[in-house]
Amino acid sequence: MKFEKTIDKQAGWSPHRGEDALWGRGGLYVRQALHMMREDKQFSAIYIAGTAVAIASAMVVALILHIRMGNIYPEVNRDRTIYVGSNFTDSDGRFVGYPGYSPQAVEEMFSHLKCAEVVSAVMDDDYLYHFSACTEVGSQEVQVSPKFTDADFFRLYEFQFLDGKPYDGENLTHGDRCIVITDRLAKRTFGKSRGVVGESLLLNYLPYKVVGVVKEVSPLLIASSADIYLPYTVNDSRAHYQSDEVSYAGGLKVRVLLKKGCTREMLMDELEPYKAQYLSMLNSTSEKEWSWYIQVVPHWRKTLNFISSEVNDASTGTLLLNLLPPALLMLLFLLLPAINLSGMVSNRMESRLAEMGICKAFGANRRVLLGQVIQENLVLTLFGGVVGYVLSWLFITAIRENKVFLSLFEREYAPVEHVSLQFDMFFTPTMFLIAFVCCAVLNLMAALIPAWASLKKPIVESMNQKK
Amino acid sequence: MTMETVIKLTEVNKIYRTEEVETQALENVNLEVYKGEFLSVMGPSGCGKSTLLNIMGLLDEPTSGMVELCGTTIGRNLSDNQLAEFRNKTLGFVFQSFHLISSLNVIDNVQLPLMYRGVPYGERIRRAKEVIERVGLSHRMKHTPVQLSGGQCQRVAIARAIIGNPEIILADEPTGNLDSKMGADILGLLKQLNEEDGRTIVMVTHNEQQARQTSRIVKFLDGRQME
To answer: Which segments of A135-261 are extended strands (E)?
Structure first.
């Protein structure tokens, strides 16, 4: 092309678009951004603080969702975990009074499911039981929270065994007094977390044999956390999990780990014949007319209970309607600081239009200038991000024992004494990256829109823009 | 011997329109600037001198007429990128108010045109040091514009204008903000660039005495070229 030939001949330097040139340019922009930060300390401080608050807000929301829905130790298969509830109602509309299944129902209904990789039954009323634990009579007692489970509980949740192993089906069948304890409890009672397998621990003054020690689970993970794990058959009050009136009704909640590729609907289809058969048998022998509702709830739906208890059974449309108000609130919570920030960035860009005009006069094209705006903003956002990250840590540290905060995670949450929360559960690099990217995108848009508008003006107009 | 035309304006008009008024800043301007010439543009405030320079420098578009720079007709046939490249390689600007970037130091301000050209970092720093030395500011390379006097700022602006080795330098009242001694220094520097390097310079000025030191003067009044 004639034009290009002409200017190349006049250039004096041949065009070079090498990596070195780009790095040099990026370095200059970073230096410029740092200089501007020092020059306009007030703006920089507010900008960084604003970004930090925005990122911290995003992270707090993200961590609430992450704790409730993410795959976290030992609940690393939440995406495939289904909670199967049960509700028998008689013709008068009265509930049977047992919130789950009996061991008989678990055995007959769930042991042969094709789409289940693991089926585990646990007592639903753990929170009613409190044990005092000590190594011998007269020694210091500590209050502990139990979880009554079957042996498959340790297959459904991938506990990290620091010592020993879980109890097995035989232990469950015989109601053996054997327990798995957390490393924290082991330290508190035995003074060490290893080498306690085979030792005896007194629970309410009855001896239990320690068969395994697992890494402690945060109490926020209500489905799997406890200080001690016991076979549910050691519980004397068998009436708790077996109804006299309806033999399938009991105190056991069933959790199913679906095989990969299987769905909730497939599980429901498999359960349907069992339901029909049992109801038919029940109604033919009982004086009452029973109906039976089997609730099949994926983990993510169960976690939304804190928003509305209706979500377990709602259709997708109703679910979305239920979720809309809290989702909008959350969005507002996230967007407010970010929008404020965007206004500031936008104002600042207006004041830099003259500079952009100068750059254009000396040969910068739109792409280069927009690139500069992006890099400068990323530097500031990065500073804000780091501060925001630290702020979120401080925030969580401050409120992690707060009951109101903890109530966000479970309605029936029962605080466990002396239990700490693991930070690695909250602050995954992915979460920070998502929060950072959200803020960066918003900030960039706020900067890019006035920059783009200015680049469309004649250069002289931009240059004469008052600073 | 025929002189090579580097800037040619033909029937150039520039009208500024607002909702209420229409102002004719330039009216049927026909002007040729030749290679190696040092041209002064004079006239009272508001006569269209700066508008003329902005149009020559592709900083503004004429309402009508044709602009030709170094044999290339400038118009809507050129993309934003091509215009940017043209400005970068063919034109150098010196402004009355310097228009240096306050957040950059001297060497970074000066290397800017080469950065946009994609010249490697080491090469552009070497070249920036050369031109800064030439304008006598080697000892101020790491200073920012606020740490410099007006005369020093204008020297930096000149260094920035010449670093890319452009064919044409457009200077809009380059001594307007300087005292007479500094003004004389800057004019001397521009004359040196014209005489020693053979650069074509178009300078807008109010100063008759300075204009007389250039090779040609054109005068404007109310947007029209008078002589």
So the answer is: 142-144, 146-149, 161-164, 178-182, 200-203, 206-214, 228-231, 249-250, 252-258
Q: What is the pLDDT of residues A401-414, one digit of tens each?
A: 666 666 555 434 34
> What residues of B are in contact with residue A17 (Cβ under 8 Å)?
118
The band of A7, judged by pLDDT with boundaries at 50, 70 and 90, is very low
Give the pair of three-digit tokens for residue A53.
Answer: 């608050």
The closest alpha carbon to B162, from B210, B115, B199, belongs to B199
Contacts of B195 (CB under 8 A, 6+ apart): none
3-state helix, strand, coil in chain A (%, to 5): 55, 15, 30
Three-class SS state of A305? helix
Q: CB-CB: which of B80, B88, B120 is closest to A362?
A: B88
For chain B, the domains span 5-225
Is the pLDDT at A329 greater than 80? The verdict is no
Task: Decide the pairing of beta strands B5-17 and B22-34.
Answer: antiparallel
Residues of A in contact with B204 (CB under 8 A): none
3-class DSSP state of A17: coil
Nearest CA in chain A to B83: A363
Residues A240, A97: Cα–Cα separation, whole Å: 10
d(CA A183, CA B182): 80
| For A24, nearest residue in chain B (alpha carbons) | B121
What is the ipTM for the molecules in this complex?
A: 0.91
pLDDT digits (tens, 9 = 90+) for B9-44: 999 999 998 888 889 999 999 999 999 999 999 999
B59 vs A459: CB contact, 8 Å cut-off? yes
Among B89, B101, B121, the residue with its CB nearest the CB of A20 is B121
Which fold would CATH assign to domain B5-225?
Rossmann fold (3.40.50)
Is residue B131 within 8 Å of B163, Cβ to Cβ? yes
Answer yes or no: do A458 and B59 touch at CB < 8 A.
yes
Question: Which residues of chain A are within 8 Å of residue B88 when distances are taken between CB atoms?
Answer: 362-363
Whole-angstrom distance, CA of residue B116 vs CA of residue B108: 12
Ranges of each domain in chain A: 2-70+320-463, 78-312
Chain B's closest residue to A31, CA to CA, is B104
Residues of chain B neighbouring A8 (CB-CB closer than 8 A)? 89
- Among B78, B81, B85, B111, pick the best mutation site for testing chain A contact (most A Cβ within 10 A): B85
Q: Do A361 and B59 touch (CB under 8 A)?
A: yes
